[in-house]
Design brief:
This is Catalase. With 674 residues, the chain is of the alpha+beta class. The protein folds into 3 domains: 332 residues, Catalase core domain (Catalase HpII,  Chain A, domain 1), CATH 2.40.180; 83 residues, Hemocyanin, N-terminal domain, CATH 1.20.1370.20; 143 residues, Class I glutamine amidotransferase (GATase) domain (Rossmann fold, 3-Layer(aba) Sandwich). The protein is 27% helix and 17% strand. The strands form 4 sheets. Strands 2, 3, 4, 5, 6, 7, 8, 9, 10 and 11 form a 10-stranded antiparallel beta sheet that branches. A 6-stranded parallel beta sheet has the order 17-14-13-18-19-20, sandwiched between helices. Strands 1-12 form a two-stranded antiparallel ribbon. Strand 19, helix 16 and strand 20 form a beta-alpha-beta unit. Helix 3 runs antiparallel to helix 4 and helix 12 runs antiparallel to helix 13. The radius of gyration is 28 Å and the shape is globular.
Length: 674
């Protein structure tokens, strides 16, 4: 027996690659013990991150290589080409060439994405959405790489690998895919108070966008704009959708994941093909350098937004996405966006999250796409580019020159540098001072004021959705202690919300002090958005022997209002009207779904079968339960009567004039049904 024990011990000694971290000291991969894993090394507590931070680089470089070949995050994405024009010259703010002349049309490529899931994830999961824009300017590429939420989970990029490790499927069973409803994610949130405001955003309907075309985009970070006089101002970038900001609801989003897991990309592709181009206005929030410290939040803190009522958004230009890709892999998958890609007139700040991304994105693109990723057509600038970089994997350019170094005499010292006065990029000379430290700036330590500001800004409907989201997400968490920690965190934001969530989850009501912030920001509520009918889908339920006159008028009026009619019937093929008119069926009850239409009109017909009636009623009920507009002609009214929704909010009966139905379609949801 002793011999067997000795052999087992020897076997264990021969397993150097099996380890457990629980209870162990944290070290680098070289074995150096780490004293601080929360902060990057900076010059002063608000200064830039230092290149010598070997601990941050070791951690980030390893993280950047954790997945091949798809992106570690934002793997599920879809893109489109377009153009951007500025409304008027911004020379008072910046030297950037593409922001000077309204006659200049700058090509762009946009990649929308999810953060959490793999390439195979459903597109309607609750998740933050990426919104990355590559501007192909005449002075080089500028990449505005952001999300559909203006803030982020963490303040310092050194913690990004930890966030994503917690967010991703749990490693022991690879569950769940592309979702946050699990223990490790909420353990991270509950253990990191800086995530409190972002927690509120992700539990809101902002993480269930109705369409890529109907969500805001934010640069998240604070950048600089520098004009030709050398004056610098702080700036945040915004994208404001022309169609307003609209979302799905939770039940609808879950079911859509089964009905059409490609819902968002199909929406973008189909509307561009149909000529309903996606339009976004570029907005700027600008703060003068002298006003950097006048706010009750730190403008360099990525977990904070600048309330639009305090720092207004100035709309300066429009982007129109008007062309689909020719090949998704060659363009959407190989595009390499990078917040470090800036042009003259745009510069960085000491935002510690931004500073880490500047390193990480270059590193991960070289690893994922290859050494010469900038030479791939989708990444290549439209302006000429010359330097002494050579060789490497998958090089496209054939350099005929003999000389590949600087300085040189054989080639008259070319390629040559360009002075800043003649267009060369010059970094803004901001002052840097301070001791080398790993610390969080005191001005970064208020974690609950803006979380409360967000809660104060929500309507009752939005608050109910946030409450339900917490109950679902935390209800999936098996650890009672994790649930309790998150509810404690909610308590600092809203006692009322914490009490309700605690009751639903079976944990204790937290005994913590609620934030005393009374202010609200109306811009944060989606109830204050624009409402249009443009490109919304109208499902029209039509049976044999439909009233040709009524349906003809309906189709004409819907088209005039820029609604997109979708003919739905028992089976594919054609359906016949009373005067012999034929309509081509777009969706059958089997291939279509009430989830896919923004509103529903019941035209029915004299030849409606029992099968038609039963399926039509199920479509009507689903639409009604999702608060969507419904209409019916007199021949379809009996189905509305049978399900008991006549005279309910958002339900109209029309015969010739369909404007009431169209007006309801514009409103999109009728929350007063609940």
């Amino acid at each position: 027996m002793d011999r067997i024990k000795k052999e087992n011990k020897k076997t264990e000694q021969l397993k150097p690659f099996v380890r457990e971290n629980k209870g162990k000291k944290m070290t680098t991969n070289e074995g150096v013990m780490i004293s601080n894993d929360e902060n990057s090394l900076t010059a002063g507590d608000r200064g830039p991150t230092l290149l010598e931070d070997f601990i941050m680089k070791d951690k980030m470089a390893h993280f950047d290589r954790e997945r091949i070949p798809e992106r570690v995050v934002h793997a599920r994405g879809y893109g489109a080409h377009g153009v951007f024009r500025v409304y008027e010259s911004l020379e008072d703010l910046t030297m950037a060439h593409f922001l000077q002349d309204p006659n200049i049309e700058t090509p762009v490529f946009v990649r929308f994405s999810e953060v959490a899931g793999s390439k195979g994830a459903n597109e309607t999961n609750r998740d933050v959405r990426g919104f990355a824009t590559k501007f192909y300017t005449e002075e080089g590429n500028f990449d505005l790489v952001g999300n559909n939420i203006p803030i982020f989970f963490i303040q310092d990029g050194i913690k990004f690998p930890d966030l994503i490790h917690a967010l991703k499927p749990e490693p022991h069973n690879e569950i769940p895919q592309g979702q946050t409803a699990h223990d490790t994610f909420w353990d991270f949130i509950g253990s990191n108070e800086e995530s409190a405001a972002m927690m509120m955003w992700i539990m809101s309907d902002r993480t269930l966008p109705r369409s890529f075309r109907m969500m805001e985009g934010f640069g998240v970070h604070t950048f600089r704009l520098v004009n030709k006089e050398g004056t610098s101002r702080f700036v945040k970038f915004h994208w404001k959708p022309a169609l307003g900001v609209h979302s799905l609801i939770w039940d609808e989003a879950q079911k859509l994941g089964g009905a059409d897991p490609d819902y968002h990309r199909r929406d973008l592709w189909g509307n561009i093909e149909d000529g309903f181009f996606a339009e976004f206005e570029l907005g700027l929030q600008v703060i003068e350098e002298k006003d950097e410290f006048m706010f009750d939040f730190d403008i360099l803190d990525a977990t904070k937004l600048w309330p639009e009522e305090i720092v207004p958004v100035r709309k300066v230009g429009k982007m129109t996405l008007n062309r689909n890709v020719d090949n998704v892999f060659a363009e959407t998958e190989q595009v390499a966006v990078h917040p470090g890609n800036i042009v003259r007139g745009i510069d960085f700040t000491n935002d510690p999250l931004l500073q880490s991304r500047i390193f990480s994105y270059t590193d991960t693109q070289i690893y994922r796409v290859g050494t010469n990723f900038q030479q791939i057509p989708i990444n290549s600038p439209v302006c000429p580019f010359h330097n002494n970089q050579r060789d490497g994997a998958a090089r496209y350019i054939i350099d005929k020159d003999r000389v590949a170094y600087h300085k040189n005499n054989l080639a008259d010292n070319t390629p040559y540098t360009v002075p800043g006065t003649k267009g060369g990029f010059v970094t803004y000379p901001s002052t840097v001072e301070g001791l080398k430290v790993r610390e969080t700036a005191p001005s970064f330590k208020d974690h609950f004021s803006q979380a409360r500001l967000f809660w104060n800004s929500m309507t009752n409907v939005e608050r109910n959705h946030i409450f339900s989201a917490f109950c679902f997400e935390l209800g999936k968490v098996k650890s009672v202690s994790v649930r309790q920690r998150v509810v404690n965190l909610i308590g600092y934001i809203s006692t009322d919300l914490a009490v309700l969530v605690a009751k639903d989850l079976g944990v204790e009501v937290p005994k913590v002090e609620e934030s005393q912030i009374k202010a609200s920001s109306p811009a944060l509520s989606m109830a204050n958005t624009k409402f249009y009918t443009d490109s919304l889908k109208t499902g029209i339920l039509i049976a044999e022997q439909f009233d040709s006159h009524v349906v003809g008028n309906l189709l004409d009026q819907l088209t005039a209002a820029k609604l997109k009619p979708v003919i739905v019937s028992e089976r594919l093929g054609v359906v016949n009207g009373t005067d012999g008119k034929e309509l081509t069926v777009d969706d059958s009850f089997l291939t279509g779904s009430p989830l896919l239409y923004d509103n529903l009109f019941v035209a029915s017909g004299r030849g409606a079968s029992e099968y038609f009636n039963q399926k039509a009623k199920s479509f009507i009920i689903e639409q009604y339960n999702h608060f969507k507009p419904l209409g019916a002609s007199r021949s379809g009214m009996y189905l509305m009567q049978e399900v008991g929704i006549i005279n309910k909010p958002g339900v109209t009966i029309n015969q010739d004039q369909f404007q009431p139905f169209i007006n309801n379609a514009r409103k999109q949801r009728f929350w007063d049904r609940s």
